[in-house]
Fold this sequence. Notes:
Blueprint: H1 37-40, E1 44-46, E2 48-49, H2 66-70, E3 80-87, E4 90-97, E5 103-111, E6 120-126, E7 132-139, H3 146-151, E8 154-159, E9 165-167, E10 180-181, E11 186-192, E12 200-206, E13 211-212, E14 216-218, E15 223-228, E16 231-235, E17 239-243, E18 249-254, E19 260-264, E20 270-275, E21 280-286, H4 288-293, E22 299-305, E23 309-313, E24 319-323, E25 326-327, E26 336-338, E27 347-348, E28 354-361, E29 381-387, E30 392-398, E31 405-406, E32 443-444, H5 448-459, H6 502-513, E33 527-528, E34 532-533, E35 559-560, H7 584-592, H8 594-614, H9 631-639, E36 641-642, E37 655-656, H10 695-704, E38 708-712, E39 715-718, H11 738-743, H12 790-793, E40 828-830, E41 852-857, E42 862-863, E43 869-870, E44 877-880, E45 888-894, H13 898-902, E46 906-911, E47 918-925, E48 935-941, E49 944-951, E50 958-966, E51 972-976, E52 983-990, E53 993-997, E54 1001-1012, H14 1035-1050, H15 1066-1082, H16 1095-1098, H17 1117-1120, E55 1127-1137, E56 1149-1156, E57 1158-1160, H18 1163-1176, E58 1184-1188, E59 1197-1201, H19 1202-1205, E60 1207-1209, E61 1211-1212, ...
Parallel strand pairs: 1-50, 5-31, 24-26
Antiparallel strand pairs: 2-49, 3-4, 4-5, 6-7, 7-8, 8-9, 10-11, 11-12, 12-13, 12-14, 15-16, 16-17, 17-18, 19-20, 20-21, 21-22, 22-25, 23-24, 27-28, 28-29, 29-30, 32-33, 34-35, 36-37, 38-39, 40-53, 41-46, 42-43, 44-45, 45-52, 46-51, 47-50, 47-53, 48-49, 48-51, 54-55, 54-67, 55-56, 57-60, 58-59, ...
Helix pairs in contact: 5-8, 6-10, 7-8, 8-9, 9-10, 14-15, 14-22, 15-18, 21-22
Protein name: Golvesin/Xly CBD-like domain-containing protein
Pfam families: Golvesin_C
Organism: Streptomyces litchfieldiae
Amino acid sequence: MRRRHRLWGTGVLATALAVGLLQAPASRADEAGPQSVYDIWDQLEPAAPAVEPAPEAPPSVAEDERAELLGGDWESSNDRAWTTTGDVTGFHLLVADASDGYAWRTAATLAEPGFDADSWIGNACVTGDGEWAVAVYAPRTFTNEPELMARGGFTAVVNLDSGEVTKLPQQASLSYYNPGCGVGDTAVLTQSGGEDLNGTRLTVLDVPGGELAEPVEVEGQVTSAVPVEDTIYAAGAGGVVRVGDDGELTDVAGTDNVPYRLTPDADGGLVFMDHDGEETARAMRLTGRQLDRGGAEPATLAEGPLTGTGLTRTAAGQVWLTGETEQVADELPAQVRVLPDTPREATASTRGEALIGGVAWADGGDSRTTAEAEWGASRPVRVDMTAMATEEDLGFTVTPDPVAATGPAEAEQDTPETLASRTEVVESERTCSVPRNSPTDQALQPKPRQVEWAVDQAINNTLNNHISRPANWKNLGMPAYQPQSADMFPRPALAGGGRVPAQVLLGVTAQESNMWQASRYTVPGVTGNPLIGNYYGIDYYDGDSSNDWTVDWAEADCGYGITQVTDHMRRAGHEDGGPAAWPYQKQRAVALDYTVNIAAGLSILSEKWNQTRNGGLTVNNGDPAKLENWFFALWAYNSGYYPQSQAGQNGGAWGVGWANNPANPEWDPARDNFMEDRYGNPQYADAAHPQDWPYQEKVLGFAAHPLEALEAPNTMVAGFRAAWWNGTEGDALTPGTAKYYRAGVKPPMTLFCTSANNCDPGAITSPSGPCERSDYRCWWHAPVTWKDDCSYTCGNELVRFNSTYPEEPDGTAYPPNCALDDIPANALIVDNLDDDVPSVRPDCDKPWHQAGTYSVDFGPGELNDSGQRVWPAKVDYHQLGAGFAAGFTFAHGRELDVLGQRLNVEATWAFDNTVNSPGIVAVHLPDHGARTTYARYEIDTAYGTEVRRISQYGTGNRWVLLGAFMFDNQPVIRLDNSVPGGNGEDNVAFDAAMVIPVDGEFVEDTVEAVAYFDEDQNLDAHGSADFLATPFADRGSLYDWAMDRTGDVLDLPACTTQQTSSCAGPAMREAMQAWRTQVEEAGTHPTDHPDGSSIPAWLNFSNPVSQRPISTTRPDYFDTDDGSYKIRQSVTVSYIVLEDGYILDGTEYAEFDDRTGDTHLPQFVRDIFDAIEEDFGIEEPDLTYSATDMNEHDGRVTTTSTSATGILPGRAYDPVASGPLTIDRHGQPASDAVPAECVAVQYTSGGSIGYRPAVSDEALLHQPVGNWTAEVQSDLNVPAPVWLVASDISQHFFNSGALSLFRNAPPIWQELHFWSCADGGIRKPSGYSLLRSSFMPDQYLYHDGVAMNLDGNQTGSAHVWSGDFHSFSNPVPAISPIGDPSDTPYERCTNTSGHGGNPWGIDMFDAAGVNPEGQHCTNAPYLH
């Protein structure tokens, strides 16, 4: 039987049971403990029912305020506001349409599997019609790798209407200007050369088609590339350049420096920004004619502070100048507007009716993490917006939808290289040394205080005073060691003396890893997988093996822990020409011990200081105690140092590279200091777009403004103490203030661009970029000074923990459950960890033995381009040292679509012992990391595979009851990560499973009601329905209507040559004759007609007569054919009966299921559509539509093509379930004094015919049919009788008006209410009906598949009710609105309304798409 779980429950144990109830105990280490099922009940929780997520209403302007706040034309507006934000779940594109009151929704969330990303970042632009967006996105840590920053971003096209995402098989630059959209439907994607390639690659994208043109390769560096009509324009070193199809650059206009933010306008011009290299920015414009001719002098439009002036554009091409901008031109071009005193970063809506002033995290903190971020919760943002028509300021708090679109372009996709077995968890073929998901290789996540303490000790060379790890520390099996010992990482001496300032190294930990040693899912105090950079070496390759522009990720990064130590961390033998692997135990210490990782990072940073210092690269006074003076060392830490000794190999160049040069135009020239605004105030939103700053500026920004970090669950703290600067009070624009000196941590932008490194930002003679070398090696190797009095004006460290402080204690979050308190001695337990795996968490011994085996299946895998079989699902499988026995795993819940199948993980708990009795099954759920509301467990039992669906969401470590089952086998339990509607947001947890054998009898009863529309149904409607003015008033009217319409067409002469308005074409005559024959054979008598020929049959109202349920057993086709019934529901009850004949309270279980069947278009309607198309060439209407809750009330949207199938799926309304409740034979709830003799349940469900949702505003099927009818009527060759038939089809079957027959179709419903009793019988509740139902249609009742009557007795016929169409068609109750609706199908049903009313209170004039909550018709107090 196909079932869909609705709701189930278990009771609580009411009486103590004897020890003899339990079977012989399983072998276990500790025999002490409780010996009865009663004792376990305090340890077992009833499982929460599975819940399939329902959409929430979006934030918007209140409907009654829209005219006032938005202006009178808001309803007809085509304007769309849009913005972006990123968090741990992905890079979100948010949109809001004016016609919806700017109701914000997530158009798409972009992310890729396989990254432990603390945040996703990106850039986006919108096409001229406002319907499409182009996005470049990546994990935040890509900005730490120059090659990934230059050309490693993922790219995608998003349809902002539908949310459809097209992944593009190309990577691109993450620089602030990329992508660049034109005012049409094209955009330019830029791939920068970075440090290693001597050029730039530009690719034009046809956005709606998602098609990439042949790339154009440019020698040299260009930025801010955009399309203007069919030509690419870009920024060169000293002006705007035109890019030819062959990559040749042509000067268009000169500028003082590298122009930026090139923006096409609607008149074919180009607006852009220029600057003086110091303080002032200017907005300039070239006309379309100037662009074509070149050699032009751009017009200066406005100017303002360099870091206070911005530029944005509507999708249609009106350019707005924002920030502290002042107009200097006498007259502005028609497509340019100055908006003074607006936020510099403001964004225009697509039609310019709104200005998005800013987007910031609603909690006001650092962008990268929140107290809930570890578990994939998207982060709410505050969107500030101004309605331009009214100048009203609006604010919205928007929670983005989590990951909905993952995986790169399908055609070009490779998969992670993993290993050669679908069940191997620890990959034997890995490249990185320390594996993921090894329970003996777990890293403790340190608290921020621990990281700061370790940094303070390491820089002072006192770490070993406190840290001496004993052998087998934390049961990790490592030998004894000290972090700064000779065989680990002794602190290097700095050239010139001194030491590393605390906040410099802390800033590195913030930028590199978010101060994490373990994966992002691991809360401080908990253990988990070590944080590893691109462990799988995931290769999203573009298919061209000769293409050196694509980042080759086949080689894993293997960066571990807080400081992302990479060199020497590959497995021995897998170095591939890189540095030799360290000894394995040293590698493990780096990966698993935060103190060792920090010591290693300190060693690397010190080495970079020594390299640059010894090479003569000093800053200011060279004092290592001053933060600014670490600029070169940090530069080299990220992108390397090229020693002078190798200058001959590099064309004479040496020093620090070009990628992180502040003068590199890849960085936004208008950027403020990282993490603060131009006035020196904190600006945490900067962390959302770190791609605007070079690495060293980000580290020093964090030194001044520490990130927020998780200290404990729901507790955020400052990651560390901030550095400090001398000076007075005041803002950063006032000389002499502390903020002024702190702002000076960022050097002048052009300081590192001089003739000394062949760089000239204003060299118009070098249009290919400020770096005048063809090999991009404008490497810097000279000392610099931008603070003459650095001893006073430079930044200073703050050491929080001196050498007297011992190691900060580990966090204690989420302690594991390591006991078997109140678990019966005969319980069989299978954990996900074997007996021989010691706990990494303290004080967690195992007082039990494994009663079987736990295994994981990652599916069949797939072949990558190299012919290797790989398993992408392993990428999304994670471990945490928590839950039962300090270890559980999880994967993210996903719909079983193409991606979900690739990432499907199935866990199996297989028990060794054969159980030949009923058994209680429970699973352990951890106190965190189990977030799915839909976990589907399969249990192999004596009756086959049973399914239980529960919500794993909850608090505390707990055993959760799945139910009682009958076994004659070795029990097997399975769970995978498939979740209906799942999008990777929530976790499905795999922990321990338990079976408790019980002596007793297992009972299972299934009662099912099926509603069947019989072709013998009398369709004479109630007299009150006459006002509907349709042929459906009675059988005679229907017969006459059909005979008249077919007769009028058939009376026309047959067309002999061509179709005219005075003859009937062959296809139409054939269709009319077929319909007429059906009508004549059916006649008008309800029952006196041939089988299959009746009025309900030719209308396709009735179910097929061949599927009339005449047998004493339930037909199987009800499970497979939604056209064989109208609605059906079933309730399955199970429990254990003890030897005394009473039910074991707590083993009761009920599963509720319902489904609404399909409605079918009449065959004559489909024939007429086809005939008119064949005879007149008028295409039949497209009857494809989408609606929610089709066939099942699951909140999901289903798309159906009625044109192809003729099917209109019925809508299922909200069902209501009560029970199971244990009672005695008189209906009294079981208690200590009342025996449990029966189990009571009640279930109410139903829906509507398929026409009603099809003509609702949601589906709008009336529109295409109405348009088709209008086309038929306007065709002069269509005879009047033919277009009258077309008009009738539209009016009678697809009318969405208030008096439409099908729009107002009342619900059909069923309500089962019965007792399943221990003596084996089904009982009708005392004083209540076993089945109540709507007036229509016929009802059939079954018990365990055998016909049953309304008294609960099995009989020879399942037919228990005959449909009453007369009452069902009564739209107006005689006594409405007072009293019971016993004579109408509308309004809310009650205890006494019989077959009248409905459980949802739907009335005659409710909207066709209404979908309200339900309630029982019968209110049985003992069940509620």
